[in-house]
Amino acid sequence: MSGGISVDSPRYVALWVPNWELSSLVVEVPPGAPAAVVDRFRVQVVTPAAQDCGVKVGMSQVMAQYCCPELLVFPPDPGRETVAFEAILQVVDDFIPEVIVVRPGLAFAPVRGPAKWAGGEVELAGELIEQVVLQTSAECQVGIADTLTGVLLACRRGLIIPSEGTRAFLDSHVLEEVVEDLPPRSKASVVKELPILKALGVRDVGDLRDLGASAVITRFGASGQILWDLICGTGMMPQASSRTGGEVVAEVELDPPALTVEQSVVAVRRVANSLSDALVHQGLYSSTIRVTVEKVGGGIYERTWTLLDAMSPSQVGKRITWQLRGMSGRLTSSPDSGEEQAVQWIRVAALHPVSVPESDPLWGGGQTRRKATRAVEEVQSLLGEDAAVTPTIQGGFDPRSRTFFTSWGSEQSSGDDNKGVVTSRKGDWDGAVSALPIVLFVKPPTALLMGQRSDGTLGRIWVNRRGLLNGNPTTLIVSCDHPELEAGDYPVSAVRGLWMVRGRWWKPESEEHSPRCYLRVSRRECPDLLLVQRGSQWWVEGIYPMNEIAQLNSPTEEKWQNCIFATGQ
After folding, report:
1. Residue 142 CA to chain centroid, in angstroms?
2. Residue numbers of the domain that contains 196
3. Residue of higher predicted confidence among 376 and 284
4. For 179, which DSSP code?
5. Can you spell out the DSSP letters for 14-63?
6. So what's the pLDDT on residue 8?
7. Burial of 35 by CB count in 10 Å (0-12 exposed, 13-18 middle, 19+ buried)?
């Protein structure tokens, strides 16, 4: 198997709008104004003018506005982004048929026919850029190359890569760039191998190609095959030899017809689940879908979406919703009115399905995980992506500050690369709690720590101004019942700690970030508890696993991957 590009391979043209989240705000953002899209108080995208003022991706909103007081701040709005990109797609439709959309801001299509009609590839690229600016005021970049991998990289640089230069162009890119646009199923399999490749000195496509197909596939298996197909230009689109033939189709009739996107939520979920069920039942996988929407008046609106997992109802439903939003924006200017604009049918076809090579584990774990994922995704489709969240561990002093919640299925970048909102865990966190509990309380119950004090009397035990316990704890009294902890008196067999966190001492009214002390308490025949003292009051912060042996010198971070957050009564 060679790593070259076939001479008769198709050529593609891709259109990319940089910083699409901001570019979709062309009406609201004056030309040259500093602006940023901020999500959860962290900067996600910035304009060049904001970059010149020192605003960077991953920076907190407070720091960004300190660097640039005139910064315009906008929240992310997928609906707005989709409607705005539909206007650009309509311009592209006038020049190129069969446009395939990756996501709002990025699309591609075969180029040979349109380029011949336009008088050449350079002329076609120039005409696309000019017309998009004239009709939508958005500035885009166009790239042309032999492979889908190459064209998605070329459009980010605005390059037209000749056929004989595609291989050299790909070889100059690091692997992280090349796998960025892989379908989620393939990307998840490949990304975990990148640190191993980097440790072996394989950093870019050229290094990987030098290893040869046999070495890559033998060492990395299915992930290696995906990588090798990717650098050969065949990794994102299914090959003819692996296709099963026809399309897998699911459709739903809306009764009554939907006039708004919100009215079609249930129908979108039904058709996405039906398509996923059909693919799973037949053991097929597809990364491309065609969504067809039919209006009551007979109008048909169709788009093709790719680089997604068609077996995921969440991903399919998201594309359908994007298309419906774009369609609603398009219909507002049409002469139709009332029921003529209502959506009557939604039809989704999984294109080029291929057989899934891997099978479930021996005891059926794969099927169980799929059912659980389906259940969570259904909740998200009804209540929004933030309705189901998972904890991510980040840097911090105490268990609560180290917990960062992300939407189920979302990919959260580490703060180490300045692209995410997660605080870096590198470096020393002086005073940080070393042993972490597996249960945290949303509403911590109050507690009293009793024992023999330093002056020989019996009474309350607390941390004094010198940062020391004023006695030897012997009894822990929990005053109120909780689903995870019963009220009562518990004999104390040992204590570990203290961990002192100075917190934001200049803001005593901020309870969450106030100065505090943590203490691990061992009970007889019961799980250990983590206590926290704020002021003169002890609270039960969390519970450790029953069979854990505390390792105070090394955090038990692995157990946090399955932590439970207890709710109050």
Report:
1. 26
2. 173-237
3. 284
4. T
5. EEE-TTHHHHTTTTTSPTT--EEEEETTEEEEE-HHHHHTT--TT-BHHH
6. 54
7. buried
Q: Final residue of a domain: which of 154, 181, 197?
A: 154
As a whole number of angstroms, the distance between CA 27 and CA 23 comes to 9
Q: Most confidently modeled of 279-288, 326-335, 387-396?
A: 279-288
Q: Provide the domain count of the chain.
A: 4
Tell me: do 111 and 201 sit in the same domain. no
Dihedrals φ, ψ of 425, to 5°? -95, 0
Whether residues 372 and 487 fall in one domain: no
CA distance 303 to 100: 7
Same domain? For 182 and 138 the reply is no
Q: How far apart are CA 1 and CA 137, in angstroms?
A: 46
Tokens of 151: 């064209």
User: In 102-171, which ranges are continuous DSSP H helix?
Assistant: 112-118, 121-136, 148-154, 166-171
Position 551 pLDDT exceeds 50: no
Task: Reply yes or no on whether the pLDDT at 282 is more than 70.
Answer: yes
Q: Decide if 247 contacts 350 (C-beta within 8 A).
A: yes
Tell whether 447 and 554 lie within a shared domain. Answer: yes
Say which DSSP state 401 is in: T
Could you tell me the pTM of the whole model? 0.64
Residue 153 and residue 181 in contact, taking contact as beta carbons nearer than 8 Å: no
Backbone angles phi, psi at 65, to 5 degrees: -75, -25
- Cis bond upstream, residue 527 (ω within 30): no
Q: Tell me, what DSSP letter sits at residue 550?
A: P
pLDDT of 131 over the 90 cut: yes
Q: Per the structure block, which two tokens stand in for 347?
A: 């039809």
Residues 330 and 438 both lie in one domain = no
- Picking from 183, 216, 237, the residue at the C-terminal end of a domain is 237
Q: Are residues 253 and 229 in the same domain?
A: no
**Helix 265-282 and helix 365-383, axial crossing angle in degrees, nearest 10:** 170
Distance CA 374, CA 382 (A): 13
